[in-house]
Amino acid sequence: MPPPVVTPVRVVIAVCLIAPFVAMLWVGSYAKVDPTFIGIPFFYWYQMLWVFISTLLTMVAYKLWNRDQRARKSQKEGASA
């Protein structure tokens, strides 16, 4: 029997990939000047922070996806042997 398509790991992967889009599309949450960071208005530094957060979340999603694919491959090979 094949493993289920929707697993907790795949849900975490989806959340990691969707979170930056939600954060950036919800403009009302960061469309303000204060608090400033080293003289940069919140509107700008919040978006730049998400560049780094998005990178980290994408890396996490990639690692989890690779681990999931290896597990599925080994499970498939184990089942066919």
In short:
With 81 residues, this protein is mainly α.
- The SSE string, one letter per element, is HH
Which value, in Å, is the CA radius of gyration? 19 Å
Beta content comes to under 5%
What is the CA–CA distance across the termini?
Answer: 14 Å
Gross geometry:
elongated
Classify the secondary structure makeup into a structural class: mainly alpha
Instruction: Please give the number of β-strands.
Output: 0
Are there runs of 5+ residues with pLDDT below 50, and where? none
Q: Largest sheet, described in full?
A: none
Q: How many H/I helices?
A: 2
Helix fraction? over 70%
> What is the overall pLDDT average?
91
Set down the secondary structure blueprint:
Elements: H1 8-25, H2 42-80
Helix pairs in contact: 1-2
Protein architecture, described:
With 81 residues, the chain is mostly helical. Helix content is 70%, strand content 0%. The chain is built from 2 helices and no strands.
Short descriptors:
0% strand; single chain; 81 residues; 2 helices
